[in-house]
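Job type: complex structure
Entries:
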Amino acid sequence: MESVATESRSADALAANPALLLRGLRKSFADVVAVDGLNLEVPGGECFGLLGPNGAGKTTTIEICEGLTTADSGTVKLLGLDWRRGEAELRQRIGIQLQETQFPDKLTVEETIRLFRSFFHRGIDVEAIIKSAELEEKRKSRVVGLSGGQKQRLAMACALVGDPELLFLDEPTTGLDPQARRHLWDLVDELKKAGRTVILTTHYLDEAERLCDRVGIMDYGKIIALGTPAELIASVGGEHIVEFALTGDPDFDSAALLAIPGIQSHRVDAGLHQLAVSELHTAVPLIFAKLDEIGSHLSEFRTHSATLEDVFVSLTGRNLRDA
Amino acid sequence: MPSPDLSSSALTSPAASSLLQLTTTRFRLSLREPEAIFWIFVFPIILAIGLGLAFRNKPADVYQVGAPTPHLSKSLNTYRGLSAKVIDETSGVHQLATGDILVLAIETSSGVTYKYDDTNPDARTARLLSDRAVQTTAGRREAVDADDNLVHETGARSIDFVVPGLLGMNLMSSAIWGLGFAIVEARQKKLLKRLVASRTPKWQYLASFVLSRLVMLVIEVTIFLGFALIAFGVPSAARSGNSLSSACSPHWLSLRLACWSPHAPRPWKLRPA
């Protein structure tokens, strides 16, 4: 996926001008602060994920970046340009997939893509983008007859048809089945390989871990954690999470467990004890022994590798999906 | 996941112009909406048929009258607008009451008496015609010779006025539903936002509605007026067809488009206050 525009931009130029630059971004709706002094820099060629619960300000942030919403204050620069002076050029150089777009039901896939292709001076051939989105068999099908996954791939095709240097994907896989999600992920992988900058919002943590080079976790309009998925997971203090529940005994003393080597932290959420553990194989037998010693009886016990969900829980004390 | 050739290319074909694509899209969407096809093309024709039949010109009325004697009945029947029957006075009065006859002519020693309801316009007309028939048969001569020259011109019938009215109503309603409703629906479905995100020129978006409506207008007017001309012989249909072709001529079309373009010079200026 080589674009003439991209070829002309050297690596030095990209380093000097980050693909996305946000400084002191603020946006309020009445008395609700949606974005609260956000600072962010995304270099060219990176896949950056904006994570957070519903209402965290992800979509507002991304719509400000897309030039669809005006910020109350702050600086927004995309590809070295801002929306006030460079809107015409920016629209030709970025691709956008909105959170919800219902294309006209009675248009066919090919007609829809051809319509969006006509808005860009340069772009990808309609036939090629249909093939890339794996919609060849549905080319003559009307939008109303497409599945959820096919509609999302059509939306992605419309976002890509202008051959964008910077692509915004707002919750691209929400509501899709696992197979359809994997199709979308493959498409994003192709873009990453082609060196495109991708900014995506999602509340699927596995999606962010799978696709994103770096992740920013948002809550209440602010980025509360920023780094690679591995860095953020490491910040929890343990690579593994041990979860267990006890029968009775609400006054369980966690100090005894924290004394076990390799256990980094302990918290209780809805009666479920969660331990961040670095050495699972040595810690688990000691946990069993300690619980037996203090006379507690297990009703539930499981382990899993630490995820971004655990990062969010450790930062906010809330689960991402419950927030 | 296949990796097709996604190399960038510039737009070269005129068919790829965004205004043309937007206009074609609008036109396709209109034609693919069965309800729109019914309301734009079929409904006005059904309405024209219904109203044409309801208000069609009928032959002149023949009034039912009665007389007790064959001689008087024969006199009444000499006039084409009257249909007289011999009936005795008692039955005649009863039929007057039930509306079966409008006038009962009774021969008296001094002449003829007409029984009728003067509050009924048809009965008053029947009375005048009955008297004229009786007097003429009796040998009355008119003071002034008078001839009838009947006029049945097309263009003066009810349907000749109904057709232009239906056409205007149809054009207005299809414009409201085809333009206003379509834009509101596009906004509700966030399609407008998506188009803004792709830098669709706003004037092109609106112009696409105007152009597709103009094409649709030619089709719907041609079909409706063609039907009116063939089915009812409405002469205004032929004249309207000529006016339409003038209105849609390239000159007028370019003037209308120029009015939409934000960069076009305005042929008018606001007068300073």
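Summary: The radius of gyration of chain A is 23 Å. Chain A is about 35% helix and 30% strand.
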